[in-house]
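so i finally got all the pieces together for this one. its two components total, 604 residues if u count the protein bits. some of the lines might not be protein, just check the labels. i wanna see the whole assembly predicted at once instead of chain by chain like last time, that was a mess tbh
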Amino acid sequence: MKIAFTTDLPQEGFKRLAGHELYASLDEAEILVSTFDYPVPRKMIESMPHLRLIANFGAGFNNIDLEACRERGIRVTNTPQPVIEPTAELAFALMIDIARRVSEFDRLVRAGKAQFGVMRNLSHSLYGKTIGIIGMGRIGQALARRAQAAGMHIIYHNRHRLPDEIEQKYEANYVDFQHVLQDSDYLSLNLPYTPEVHHLIGKPELGMMKRTAYLINTARGAHVDEGALIEALKSGIIAGAALDVYEHEPAISTDLLTLPNVVLSPHTGTGTWEGRIAMCENVCDNILAFIEGQTNKMNIVL
Amino acid sequence: MKIAFTTDLPQEGFKRLAGHELYASLDEAEILVSTFDYPVPRKMIESMPHLRLIANFGAGFNNIDLEACRERGIRVTNTPQPVIEPTAELAFALMIDIARRVSEFDRLVRAGKAQFGVMRNLSHSLYGKTIGIIGMGRIGQALARRAQAAGMHIIYHNRHRLPDEIEQKYEANYVDFQHVLQDSDYLSLNLPYTPEVHHLIGKPELGMMKRTAYLINTARGAHVDEGALIEALKSGIIAGAALDVYEHEPAISTDLLTLPNVVLSPHTGTGTWEGRIAMCENVCDNILAFIEGQTNKMNIVL
């Protein structure tokens, strides 16, 4: 098989494709390995006459023109499994960082401005607090597992209520959208982006949150009205925010960059070396299953 | 009772002492509320002729001249319980921060230097890695609980091996000192300071660690030879360090302040608002039990 790549990915993740022609040109390739951040528009698809499979690297696939694929009968796969733990890990990392003011204190110490003392440098505990998770899929549940061990109470909102045994496992209580906003000390967004949830968190929703609450977003930037968030952070409507994603990515509102009560991460939810290799392996799984005609072993999007 | 304070602590934590004379002068006080960072030397004790109890705020009590107390029959109490969860929480926060490079990336983003991209800003997972905990007391176990939920393998070294049921609870394996150094991806110090463990981690020990390993210290600065650590960080003997405590606190070696592979926290292990109030409440418990003669309800150090 002739396989093209949109992006330079770690070669060690593609050892199992030895024997196939890697790095083929687009006009010859039968398989395209694309990455979630690399657009694959209709025009590009039309430039690949032999294309039969797009094996996307990433859980999301809104980089690909699915309609153009459908018309040509091109299969599309993704890598949903390896992103779960790294993304939940980063959500937890951002939450504990903003709570315990780790990045802020690191900045103070490096600037020589930190003063030691028993009533100085105080922060807030996660322990005993309530986390509200919007989007209780696999990533939300992997976050819940960590939050539970951290001594947090868990409430969640989801399109569908989860089965009893999963709720019991995490001691998680299902609440409606209004109550997940009102009752959370830490509110984490872990739902996929669709146009229906554009600006899910805007000025009215921020106004319903506790003034002591923190917002954590590792899902998609457009879930949040960034302008409204900045106003809320400046005026004390909420206490702080920890963000991995931005509404106009890769642009970040310059107002965010100087706020003390935010932690900012450059879209690294899935970005661990271990996670990247696992995602490459998942791409290989999909390609090899496709070649062998084992559609039941593929992560099929289309 | 006449009660003196060395330090201005939150008044809301001492409501249960209403009726007693708070903020008494030293020459009149029968009870002294001191804090772990405030020295109570022999001379100060001698200036308090009516002193019967020192109710220390903190788990540590090496700020107090115990011998001078012993000679006068002065009781000393501490607050071991409320420090457990906040300290374990910070140890976990520092570990996940250095692994996922949260503070470093926040610095990059704020400086406008972060570039987005699928193979940029990569970090390391905790998930699937091995944490080595030196000092598996209550704080070490509270850290183990969090690490287990984060998908880590747990090894520990301790003066005494823990009972089977505790090892099984955390899926923790007891190893000797050499192996906790050699086998850990993340090495966390959670033991109390005594002169015997001064410079427990020095040049030879750092040399035994993996070159990919991270050191986390939320215990006491003098556990680590700070000069040797700086050399190890500069020369790649270990990958990084996350520190809440320093050998010559409040001084921090200036070499640390500019290293990219460290996270620095200004001794805030127990420093949450919630934790501070809980520590005040524990001080009240000890004072009220002392007044009522219920020594079995006191956290007695001496």
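The mean pLDDT of chain B is 97.
The domain at 84-264 of chain B is CATH 3.40.50.720 (Rossmann fold).
anyway lmk what u think
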